[in-house]
Amino acid sequence: MNKFRLIIILCLLSCILHLPAFTLQAAGSITAVVTVQGTFNLMVNTDSFDFARLTPGQTGGMSRSEGVEVAGTSSGENPWYLKVSAEKPLTSGDNTIPNENFTWHGTSEGTGDWSGTQEKSLADPNVAAYMSSAEELDQVKKVINRFDFMLHVPEDTKPGEYSTTVKFTMTE
Amino acid sequence: MLIVICLVIGAWSLVIPAFALSINIDPSNIKVVLKPGETKTGEILVQNFGGTKIKVKAYTEDWVYAPDGSKTFIRSGSSVYSCSSWIKLDPASFELAPKEDKKVKYSIIAPNNASGGHVSVIFFEAVIDRYEGIAVSGRIGTIVYLDTEGDIKRSGELKDLVIEASEEGSPVSLNFSFVNNGNSHISAQPNIKIMDGGKMIIEKKAKNINTLPGDTKSSMIKIGEPLKEGKYKAQVEISFDGKTLKSQSDFTISKSAQK
Question: How many CA atoms lie within 13 A of B183 on its CB side?
């Protein structure tokens, strides 16, 4: 019988100890505020690529067989655009290869408008590579686009190491 | 169990590409109304979500609309609607360690003779120093729309509505042009309606038409739904700034030659 009483007392004590400390106070309210930051994000999976060794008259692809992957995400209300350009023509000292010879094409995992199904020249700054869809904006979806670059070396090109910067631009 | 988890994580890491450069900004656009001589200040959050330290250069450029609706970026000060030279950025260059962020302060100072609407873009260009061959960089921009208080006229014209329609089952297209003849940027919402007699049978909203002053933007909207033989009326409505422009035209769908 004593054991039974002891168990009941322990149970009651346990209940009292587990009651929240403020239950006997007047009910109140607190305001929780959270600022959700906007996402407008550009991702590029490499900082460089090359075409290895090409001879005048030859057209070649990049050594990097997996291409350049560029992803965009936006939580905004407006469509976003991805563009690709070359800062200047491929240059080696005083010699250049015009950007008309520097082209790209590729594939997109997005549901928006992708213009890379056909080869495009880097000399044309007007065409968007990718334009997001309404669905991607609603879902704040990350869209991965893959770019493969090609270079045609004109017959009259002087030997040398030619370089430039390929720039990906993302804006609304 | 542990082996399975490791295999799943390993496979996942092979599927998800690693991004050398990952830059995030907030906000992606700024809309301001300023009186001549007034200054507006604010901050843009720039974040390095990547795993590599990056150098970031902040600068302004001008832009105009390309035919596909995207923006073509041009040298600062080369557009008549530019406000790029009115924008000051601090800091204009900085480094971001992986997962680090920075608030870049901007001040937009409208000159005393400011009038009409102006646009610009604030770019944050990320550069990774070490590279071999052809360098790859990324830049992300906050678009700036500025209106001069008391001097904004948003007006447009809807014209050249042409309906391309032939026979039952063939696609129907509405072609029209919108002319921005005001003095500021317009983002207009097109809405099309197809009427059979007095009854509206199709209503469709299309993508916004964005224009700068003086721009003419030609649009084509395709109707997906097939129409039966008969006479119809097509109406295009373009809404912006509390106004709606309308244009309508009759068209006929003939009987399919295949029947």
Answer: 11
* pTM (two decimals): 0.86
CA B227 distance to own-chain centroid: 33
Q: Specify the CATH number for the domain of residue A104.
A: 2.60.40
Enumerate the residues of chain B whose CB falls inside 8 A of the CB of residue A170: 138-141
ipTM of predicted complex: 0.87
Q: What pLDDT sits at residue B8? A: 46
Residue with tokens 């260009």: B125
The residue range of the domain holding A106 is 36-171
Those of residues 193-222 in B touching chain A at CB distance below 8 A are 207
Residue B87 lies in a domain: yes
| Mean pLDDT in order along chain B per 10 residues (259 residues) | 50 54 97 98 97 94 94 95 98 96 98 97 85 87 98 96 87 95 97 93 92 96 88 96 95 79
Determine the residue type at B48.
N
B 137-156 residues with CB < 8 A to A: 137-141, 143
Interface test with B, best of A36, A37, A39, A48 (most B CBs within 10 A): A48
Number of other residues whose CB lies within 10 A of the CB of residue A48 = 19
Residue B13 lies in a domain: no
